[in-house]
Design a protein that fits this description.
Residues 1-17 form the signal peptide. Keywords: Signal. This is C-type lectin domain-containing protein. The chain is mostly beta strands. The protein has helices spanning 2-16, 42-52, 64-71; strands at 24-26, 31-40, 57-58, 80-86, 95-96, 100-101, 121-125, 128-132, 137-142, 151-153, 156-157, 164-171, 178-185, 188-194, 198-199, 205-211, 214-221, 230-238, 243-252. The protein has two domains: 24-143, Mannose-Binding Protein A, Chain A, CATH 3.10.100.10; 151-250, Immunoglobulin-like, CATH 2.60.40. It has three helices and 19 strands. The strands form four sheets. Strands 11-19-18-13-14-15 form a six-stranded mixed sheet, with no helix packed on it. A five-stranded antiparallel sheet has the order 6-5-4-7-8. It has a four-stranded antiparallel sheet with strand order 1-2-9-3, with helices on both faces. The radius of gyration is 22 Å and the shape is elongated. The N and C termini lie far apart (68 Å). Residues 1-18 have low confidence and may be disordered.
């Protein structure tokens, strides 16, 4: 009964707090990660992450950057933690969760790694990953990405074109966290927007639209010139000083 009360209270706290509250932001993956110091078996831990952390999961370590980052959570008190890697369906055929095939990066503590049919889950340690049985352990939860990298749609304009639109889009899983957006081009700041207002150093018309699952920053180019060609950078700003930014080459023909 006490555990149920604690869990319900935690759900309330998570839903009311700002993004990544009580968690740590990992810029490389655009996710929040937390070490849960509660002993649970793999399936229970996966369910815990999914239910309490924005539809999350046990951490997926897809590259060395993320691997190095999560090792920072471990110490002499908590020397290992469950991660999302498993080979429960076939020994040696590893997946992150149930569906994402693990192919490009492995951080095993001992190499070459020889899969054991006696173990189907894995833990991270300071020295690398180790296969693990179905015993309870602390675990690492990871949210879904808060926002994707912005994509500049159709970065190709025609000289002299009027009312041409440049659109930067990103996927977002948290509508309320998008605070503002900016677009810089070769000739200066083209857009500086909140959801209520937009400004431009060059007097361009812009808009920021946030809908469930997507955010779009649109800037209208009144008279496209050759000088507009060059680097275009789009940046979305979230709460807690989080950002997502990407740059593209705009061409004018």
């Amino acid at each position: 009964m006490n555990l149920i009360i604690i869990c319900l209270l935690y759900v309330f706290v998570i839903s009311e707090c700002q993004i990544c509250e009580h968690m740590t932001y990992h810029e490389h993956s655009q996710t929040c990660i937390v070490l849960v110091q509660h002993l649970a078996k793999h399936a229970e831990a996966e369910s815990y992450c999914r239910d309490l952390f924005y539809g999350g999961h046990l951490v997926h370590i897809l590259d060395e950057n993320t691997d190095t980052f999560i090792r920072g959570f471990l110490n002499s008190t908590t020397d290992k933690a469950l991660i999302g890697l498993q080979d429960s369906k076939k020994n040696g055929h590893y997946t992150w969760g149930d569906t994402i095939k693990a192919t490009s990066y492995f951080g095993w503590a001992f190499r070459p790694h020889i899969p054991s049919p006696s173990y189907s889950t894995a833990v991270a340690t300071k020295h690398g990953w180790m296969e693990f049985g179905n015993s309870p352990a602390n675990f690492l939860c990871q949210t879904q990405p808060l926002i994707s990298k912005p994509v500049l749609k159709c970065p190709l304009l025609k000289e002299g074109e009027s009312n041409a639109s440049l659109v930067c889009e990103a996927w977002s899983n948290a509508k309320s966290t998008i605070l503002s957006a900016k677009m810089y081009g070769a000739t200066g700041q083209w857009a500086n927007c909140t959801q209520d207002n937009c400004e431009s150093e060059l007097g361009l018309q812009s808009s920021l639209v946030v809908t469930p699952g997507k955010v779009s920053l649109t800037t209208k180019m009144n008279d496209v010139r050759r000088s507009d060609a060059g680097r275009v950078t789009c940046t979305f700003y979230l709460r807690n000083d989080l950002t997502s930014s990407a740059s593209y080459d705009l061409k004018v023909y």
